[in-house]
Design a protein that fits this description.
This is Phage Gp15 protein. It is built from eight helices and two strands, in the order ββαααααααα. With about 200 residues, the chain is mainly α.
């Protein structure tokens, strides 16, 4: 959760040694990309992630299980994006807590609406259009949480938001056949690869 009432204190303390976490958006995206690469051995991934996020290569020599536990803690505390709806209990009309829908519910056909990897140019142009922020110039500077807040706050009329609306569109009953055909063509044009 992005808490604007507190300063960002991105520090990792291990064995009385403090490491500054370097959580610029480009470093976090590098970690995500690295984690998805099949040619990198799984036991090396948490070590590489910690080395990248701290700029300390000694993590590469760490025990794999220890590195994985530390990375999981860093991810949960500093990187994972949580939505308010996932944190708040909802109640039915009688005041009973409603069960939360599991994130990996097979009954939902929620395909991702965007991919940081494949939608980079739409995100870049939308940040320029809405905020006059050049993301290339902000590498190493713009914090991951700030990046996510700006990304989720992009206004209508930006290319990224328009592409997400196209991908999210579902046909309704009735409606104009030409409009439906146009939207299907746009969905095909802006479709993400199977990820």
């Amino acid at each position: 959760m992005f808490d604007i009432s507190k300063k960002m204190d991105d520090k990792l303390v291990l064995n009385n040694k403090e490491y500054q976490l370097l959580l610029s958006f480009d470093r976090v995206l590098w970690v995500f990309d690295m984690w998805g690469k099949e040619h990198i051995p799984i036991e090396l991934k948490p070590k590489l992630a910690l080395a990248k996020l701290t700029d300390d290569v000694t993590f590469k020599d760490m025990d794999t299980e220890d590195a994985l536990a530390i990375y999981a803690e860093v991810f949960e505390k500093y990187i994972q994006v949580t939505r308010a709806i996932d944190e708040v209990d909802r109640y039915d009309i009688e005041g009973n807590v409603m069960p939360k829908k599991p994130k990996d519910d097979p009954e939902t056909d929620d395909k991702p609406l965007f991919s940081i990897k494949y939608d980079g140019e739409y995100i870049f142009s939308s940040f320029m259009q809405a905020y006059n922020i050049d993301l290339i110039e902000q590498q190493g500077k713009l914090h991951w949480q700030k990046f996510n807040a700006l990304l989720s706050g992009l206004p209508d009329g930006t290319k990224f938001v328009e592409v997400m609306k196209i991908r999210a569109w579902k046909p309704s009953r009735g409606g104009d056949a030409k409009e439906k055909q146009k939207m299907r063509e746009l969905q095909e044009q802006y479709a993400l690869p199977n990820i």
